[in-house]
Amino acid sequence: MTNQPKRVSILGSTGSIGLNSFAVLDGLSPDYQPISASAHSQWQQLASQARKYQLEKVVITKPDCYEPLKNELSDTKTQVLCGQEHLVDLAADEHCDILIVAIVGAAGLPAVLAATKAGKRVAVANKESLVMAGCLLMPMAKEHNANILPIDSEHSAILQAMHSGHRREVEKVSITCSGGPFRTLTKEQMAHVSLEDALNHPTWDMGPKITIDSATMMNKALEIVEARWLFDLSTDEIEVVIHPESIIHSMVEFCDGSTLAQLSRPDMKCPIQYALTFPDRMPGLSERLNLHDIGQLNFEPPDFERFPALRLGFEVAQKGGTAGSVLNAANEAAVEAFRAHKIGFTQIVELTEQCLRNHNWKEKPTLQEILEVDKLARQEVENCLEDLGAKKIR
Ligand SMILES: NC(=O)c1ccc[n+]([C@@H]2O[C@H](COP(=O)([O-])OP(=O)(O)OC[C@H]3O[C@@H](n4cnc5c(N)ncnc54)[C@H](OP(=O)(O)O)[C@@H]3O)[C@@H](O)[C@H]2O)c1
């Protein structure tokens, strides 16, 4: 390590991953130093982060939060910016060595693209950007010598296991999945679950969108697509294993019959830190694993009937191109509709599948085309909601 600290920017600093990122940086101080951050609506939280870490710049993306944030920080040296376009400026800022993208949803994509083009280390929690545009991002990273490193615990586990062999020696990647809160429910029971039930994850404490994605297992579907792009895997090389304890975060099987697994408590500080220090390891804050206390680890095959999102994940990973953009956008819009009590739980995946079926797929899309597909899929979900609303009224 040189004497110069690594300068880190955190986009989405007020969320679950954002807060864990600051905790990791506290532990890595003074070798790693936060320099800028962004939030969407929680301006008070962003203001206290700016004060505590004497951040150089902060970006708030919800326009009506700009004035109160600016006033709150008026006696500091922190530059306060407003608007999505400034996320791209932070991402490409030459003073930033590592960008953590902890924004939820498609809103994270422009920043991931900008940091990749600028040749940075991009620690990506925002799996949605890889699902939407993995076909553009991975070649772009190669061209610009950027390093896209996963924060997702499963992909971090795969990265760590892959480190002990060569890509050509990998036979299979097993992505583990807790099964979420509805692992043992029937399809009929799932049709009647509430928003509160869906937000009650058994092992992980996360933001609301990914928690609902975990309940439908769309999160695993997104992760299958993410793994396909990050590690250049075919769908024949990927399997999903239900592992309710969330202790093994994924496994890689090599051609000699060895399977390497990465184990740790379900705590995102571990993969966040690895994305920052890779390929090195530094002392970390995560609580240590005590296998005597855990006693038993369980595994089950996934049920594609009860959790059809998994089938969509494999299908989209195989197709590539614009399919990821539809999957992600339709799911985001459907999750929002579920959170607004406009649709039932099982309709999230039904609507998403319907959008996929109606989509005119393109194998090698431009960014413009990917964004257009995103817009159309959201519009299609909107139209379906109007139809559903009309049916209810009749
Ligand atoms: N949480 C986990 O354990 C976990 C694990 C693996 C992967 N991930 C991935 O990490 C990402 C973040 O998840 P999370 O659980 O941390 O979510 P979260 O708690 O909901 O936080 C989301 C962050 O994004 C900001 N944000 C929301 N909408 C935005 C917009 N339109 N433009 C810019 N910023 C926006 C939020 O700002 P405000 O709060 O200020 O509104 C917040 O800082 C997701 O892609 C998720 O899939 C999360």
Number of helices: 17
Strand percentage lies at 5-15%
Q: Span from first to last CA? A: 68 Å
The overall number of domains is 3
Percent in helix: 40-55%
Shape: globular
Q: Indicate the multimeric state.
A: single chain
SSE string, helix = H, strand = E?
EHEHEHEHEHEHEHEHHHHEEEHHHHHH
- Classified by CATH, the class of the largest domain is Alpha Beta
The largest sheet, given as strand count, sense and whether it forms a barrel, is: 7 strands, parallel
Which strand order do you get reading across the main beta sheet?
A: 4-3-2-1-5-6-7
Report on the architecture of this protein.
The chain is of the alpha/beta class and 394 residues long. It has 3 domains: 6-150, NAD(P)-binding Rossmann-like Domain (Rossmann fold), CATH 3.40.50; 152-188 and 205-267 and 289-308, no CATH class; 320-394, RNA polymerase sigma factor, region 2, helix turn helix motif (Rna Polymerase Sigma Factor, Chain: A, Orthogonal Bundle), CATH 1.10.1740. It is 47% helix and 15% strand. It contains 17 helices and 11 strands. It has helices at residues 16-28, 43-53, 66-72, 85-92, 109-117, 127-144, 153-162, 187-190, 195-198, 208-216, 218-230, 269-277, 291-294, 309-319, 323-339, 347-357, 367-393; strands at residues 6-11, 32-39, 57-60, 79-82, 98-101, 121-124, 147-150, 170-177, 238-242, 248-254, 259-263. A hairpin with a 4-residue loop joins strand 10 (248-254) and strand 11. Helix 6 (127-144) runs antiparallel to helix 15. The longest helix is centred in the C-terminal third of the chain and has 27 residues, at 367-393. The mean pLDDT is 96. It binds NADP nicotinamide-adenine-dinucleotide phosphate. NADP nicotinamide-adenine-dinucleotide phosphate (NAP) is lined by residues 12-18, 39-42, 61, 102-104, 107, 125-128, 152, 204, 206-210, 268. NADP nicotinamide-adenine-dinucleotide phosphate binds next to helix 1, helix 6 and helix 10.
